[in-house]
Structures are given as structure tokens and as C-alpha cells.
């Protein structure tokens, strides 16, 4: 279920300590500042996770949806958030991607605080650094496939040539280039999903967030989508964060985090 955005709470600028879920890595690409704030005291996240949530709580009315969650995502890994319906998977992705601000706790992206940004700055960050996917392709019916994939880049003025070149590159990578001049309604659902993946990757994001990316697909079609999504992300150093309750999706991840009631599920011990 999608969480509606709400305004960020007052800024916090203390970098979080390392947590068990957050592995260190030495070669996270530095992303230049693109109009979003750095913590007022100049402090930065001390290790190299591309994304880090620290002690994050999200509430909606009387309900606590995420409870003091901490997790780190490494650059170029595939990380799956799993758990049953209502566990908080979508909420965790929403907080990590800046769709919503946490009510308490911190979120860091490439060593910069996300939790201190307002709605607009988080939106700009999503547009330039993150790719977003969910269980629907969400293509524009009046545009060709090529135009749909190039669209995120066409929003920048003066980039028409490079936008179409990049779109063709990713369409080749996702095996949909033959359909460049067709319109979405002419194509089957499995192809539309791959086109949506190409569109998410075309901005060369640091992180792709995919909330049930294979919804409605099954068997070989689902495996094909996941293999191609994971390999395209990995080969370009893009972190992939999945939310899913489908083991056939989760098994493509390098690491998984299982949630129950807005926090990590207790470790099972077999008697
Ligand atoms: N806007 C909201 N207001 C109140 N409660 C909400 C809101 N959005 C989500 N919730 C509740 O928060 C909890 C976590 O929701 P979330 O969508 O993150 O779960 P999920 O694990 O992604 O589930 P699903 O697999 O069904 O998508 C659920 O109990 C849900 O009902």
C-alpha cells in the first residue's frame, strides 16, 4: 500500500553510528551536489553505504508503521525487503527514497542527510538520483516506446540527442529495442515491464527502488524480468532495493531483510 507524503520534521544533522545491517564498502561513487542540502554542521555519514536509514520511525495516526528501523544499502547490491502484507515494506522503500520523511530517525544518501530536506528537494533528488518502479508500467499511451524511455531525460532542456541515444542503449540492454516505434497498447505486459525498467535506468540513477516489480507476472516471464533488472543494475553499479512478498523475486537479491510489524522479523530458531 502506498503511504501518502507528509512534511519532514525539523532537521537533524548528527551522523548515525554504524549498524549491523550496514556493511562498509570502499568505492561508492561520489555524486556531485545537485541542489540538496548538506547537514548544517558539515557532518557526513561516516561510512560508505549508498543509503542508510538509522533508527527510523514512521507513524500514521495512532499506527506505528516503521519502528526504529536501521538498515544500510551498499552501492551496486540487490537488496530485498520481504515480509507479509502490511509488514512495512513499502513504507521502508518510501522513506529510503524520500517519498516520505520519517517522523523520527535519519536517512542518509551518499553521506548526505535526506531527512533534513523538504518535499521539493527530496523530489528533485528522486528525479536525478533514483529510479522508481512498481507493479505497473505507467507508460504514456500517446508516446512511442522510445519516447517513453527517453522522457525522464527530455525533461532537461537541450538534451534531445543524448536522451534518445541513452534510451536506445537501455532498450538494447533490456531487449526491447525492436519495439522502439510502437505504442504501449500494442505490447504485452511482460514487455511493458521491461520498458519501464529501461525508463527507470535511463537517468543512470544511483539507486533503483522496485516495489513488487513483477506484480502480475509469473514463472519464466517473472524470472526473465528479474534477471534482466538485476544484471542491468549490477553491471552499471546501481543499487537495487526491492520490496516483495514473492520468494521468486526475493531469491534474486544478494541480501534480504524480512520485516514483521514494521521491524525486522525475529530470527527463527528451529527446535
Ligand atoms: N496512509 C496510511 N495511513 C494509515 N496506515 C497506513 C497508511 N499507509 C500504510 N498504512 C499501514 O501501514 C502498514 C504498512 O504498510 P505497507 O504498505 O508499508 O506494508 P507492505 O509490507 O508494503 O504491504 P503490502 O505487501 O500489502 O504492500 C499497513 O498496516 C498499512 O495498513
TrEMBL record:
One GO MF term attached to the UniProt entry: ATP binding
Pfam families: ABC_tran
InterPro entries for this protein: AAA+_ATPase, ABC_transporter-like_ATP-bd, ABC_transpr_LolD-like, P-loop_NTPase
Keywords for this protein: ATP-binding, Nucleotide-binding
Segments of skewed composition (Low complexity): 1-12
Stretches assigned to the ABC transporter domain: 51-269
Highest taxon above the source species: Bacteria
Keyword set includes rRNA-binding: no
PANTHER family documented for this protein: IMPORT ATP-BINDING PROTEIN, LIPOPROTEIN-RELEASING SYSTEM ATP-BINDING PROTEIN LOLD
Family: Belongs to the ABC transporter superfamily.
Name of the protein described by the UniProt record: ATP-binding cassette domain-containing protein
Protein's organism: Yinghuangia aomiensis
Amino acid at each position: 500500500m502506498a503511504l501518502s507524503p507528509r512534511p519532514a520534521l525539523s532537521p537533524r544533522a548528527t551522523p548515525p553510528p554504524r549498524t549491523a545491517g550496514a556493511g562498509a564498502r570502499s568505492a561508492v561513487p561520489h555524486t556531485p551536489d545537485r541542489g540538496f542540502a548538506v547537514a548544517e554542521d558539515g557532518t557526513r555519514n561516516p561510512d560508505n553505504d549508498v543509503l542508510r536509514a538509522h533508527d527510523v520511525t514512521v507513524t500514521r495516526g495512532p499506527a506505528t508503521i516503521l519502528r526504529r528501523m536501521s538498515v544500510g544499502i551498499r552501492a551496486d547490491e540487490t537488496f530485498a525487503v520481504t515480509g507479509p502484507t502490511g509488514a512495512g515494506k513499502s513504507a521502508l522503500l518510501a522513506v529510503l527514497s524520500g517519498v516520505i520523511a520519517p517522523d523520527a530517525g535519519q536517512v542518509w544518501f551518499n553521506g548526505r542527510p535526506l531527512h533534513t530536506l523538504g518535499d521539493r528537494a527530496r523530489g528533485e533528488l528522486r528525479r536525478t538520483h533514483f529510479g522508481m518502479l512498481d507493479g505497473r508500467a505507467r507508460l504514456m499511451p500517446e508516446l512511442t516506446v522510445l519516447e517513453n524511455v527517453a522522457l525522464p531525460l527530455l525533461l532537461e532542456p537541450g538534451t534531445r540527442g543524448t536522451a534518445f541515444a541513452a534510451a536506445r542503449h537501455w532498450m538494447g540492454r533490456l531487449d526491447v529495442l525492436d519495439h522502439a516505434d510502437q505504442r504501449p497498447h500494442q505490447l504485452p505486459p511482460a514487455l511493458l515491464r521491461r520498458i519501464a525498467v529501461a525508463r527507470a535506468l535511463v537517468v543512470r540513477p544511483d539507486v533503483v527502488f522496485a516495489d513488487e516489480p513483477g506484480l502480475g507476472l509469473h514463472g519464466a516471464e517473472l524470472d526473465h524480468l528479474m534477471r534482466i533488472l538485476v544484471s542491468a543494475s549490477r553491471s552499471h553499479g546501481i543499487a537495487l532495493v526491492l520490496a516483495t512478498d514473492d520468494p521468486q523475486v526475493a531469491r534474486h537479491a544478494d541480501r534480504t531483510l524480512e520485516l514483521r510489524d514494521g521491524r525486522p522479523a525475529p530470527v527463527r530458531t528451529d527446535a
